[in-house]
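agent: user wants the full assembly modeled, not chains individually. Plan: 1) parse entity lines 2) check alphabet per entity 3) run joint structure prediction 4) return tokens. Steps 1-2 passed, two entities, 702 residues total. Proceeding.
--- entities ---
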Amino acid sequence: MVLHALNPAARAAGLRRGQGQADALAMIPHLVCRPADPAADARALEALAIWAERWSPSVSLDASPDGLEGLFLDITGAGHLFGGERALLDRIRDRLAEAGIAARAAAAPTPGAAWALARWSDPEGRPPVVGQDRLRERLAELPLEALRLDAAALAQARRFGLKRIGDLYAMPRAGLARRFRGAGGLDLVRRLDQALGHEGEALTPVRPPARYRAWQAFAEPLGDLAGVEARLPALADDLAAALERDGQGARRLTLTGFRTDGGAPALSIRTGRPGRDAAVWLRLFREAGLGRLELGFGVDALMLAAAEVEPLAVRQAALHDEAAARQAEDLAALVDRLSARLGPDRVLTPETADSWIPERAERWRPALAGPAAALEGEPGRRPILLFDPPEPVEAIAELPDGAPARFTWRRLSRRVIRADGPERLSPEWWRPAADRRAIRTRDYYRVEDEAGGRYWLFREGLYGREYGGGEGERAPSWWMHGVLP
Amino acid sequence: MSLPSLASPELFPAAAAPLEEACAPLPRDVAGALLFALSRRPAEDDRPVLMALPRAWLGEYGRPYAPGLAGPPPILAPVATPAEALWALEQGLRSGAVSLALGAVEEATLAQSRRLDFAARHGRAVGVTLSRRLDGLSAARRRWRISSRVGEGDRDDPRAPGPARFSVELVRSRGERPGVWILEQDDETHRLRLADRLAGLRPAAVAGAGVRSGLAA
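--- prediction returned ---
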């Protein structure tokens, strides 16, 4: 068992990461040890990354192996929003300290340089902010470990007497490339190029950044929903203005609250058609329930992001009739409102599918996905209410394919006075059966009983062809599939 | 030729009031009540139909089956609670985007049904509530009781079931006399209309339903 992470006091006492636990306890008997949980650490880092989205739309994880994890925040072009990059780094560090996380920050033109400067800067001093002009000389004074090399490359470099990054500047590139080939092909020269900006480095953000965001930070955390509701219209107007500038409309919006204790609860709404009407969005958020945002001890920043945008400038040309256009708008707005409160999968419209098996002939899909198609079916010959799955029935019928004369369903026995059928539906032989039993032909009958009730029954399995009365064969069975009016 | 005495001489009120209630006393009449509710939509109004049905209701009586429905495309909202059903009905009626909004609500208070009535007038739509019992006060202008009846055989094959037939009883109405009518499903529009072939139907067929008829509400 080795030490995975240490606090500053332990480090000051001389312990090192990777040292054996027994060794460490021998040095410091009163050392407090806890089992490491790397999975929980990774999850906590991801949650922190999402919380850090209040400062940057693109936050990436830096899972460094030495136990000092970090985050990369892309703050390109956003420095002025926070009063300068230096002020932003101060604020980030203070904010993390408030949440109980001691952090070091640095800003640089490349991820590699920022990584190096953050780890090798003075923890008490101000976070360094280095521009492209001074990058080379600032990096020169840092040790070679700051280039994210693996242990083998570091050992070899030390044998060559290379200790600082500045020592590498004078070396011939071809020689360095030949001698220092690290794991995964990331050799010394490539890391140096990445740090200096001669080669790019791709970072994967923890969540895909939304193109349109409006956010606002508050000096005093908002403790209740009234505060959130009061600030939401301003955010919605900002976002609508940004969308209008580019001729886009949003179809999905997410409201994220950044809590003081590091959580980031979010609430989403969807609309059937792209739009940028702030009043409609506010109404949909209210229907969806702003109470679902758990504010905890308070929220000190709110962000409204448009996750799905579509061009709005071009209207559908098919609806040339103004009344029809207004009717379609009203219907889309109704579907949006119902879906916001009940859930998108609880507002459904039917779609005919290409199958003659009755339970597969129709499919109910969310109405948000698009307007409903016209009904095409056989209203006289098909039930208006279907049981899915069909319910078992005991029936007495003439063999081989007579209609039932009497049947028992839901513990009531009924006598049939009129019947029509059989309508024979053969199975879709190209579909594999769910439970390995052969699917058999169904004979459907429309029956009317002595009380006027009308039902749609079927018998599955044909006497003669599919059932010979042998041992181990299932006898054909009767089922109730639907109720005709 | 005069109608037999079992059907009321008054005209059947085909034009629906803004809010009506259809009650199916027995489980086998529920499908008939659904068809009756769908037939309350004015024939020339082709705006979609909203159905707000609780999931318990769908499990018990089955879910609407699109190949068996006729008319404009339906929107189904499988709600969880009666409160959600009432809310969805009100939203649908008020929006003006649907022609008919029907929901299965068992016990709506007078205030709730009055809200539905106002919403239906505002959106120029028809609202129908389906229930199993007709007790309690309601702001519905008309309250119906639907019962299945044995119908005539099919015109071409007497052994096959013909058009569906129901007796609908106007139990309570403001400004109209109660009455009983026999309705049948039309072959082409698949809506319910007054039955035209009543020859051979004896008065006992109506009285023998076993359900208390008359001014029950």
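agent: reporting back. Chain B has five helices and ten strands. Strands of chain B lie at 19-23, 49-54, 63-64, 74-79, 100-104, 126-131, 142-149, 165-173, 179-185, 192-194.
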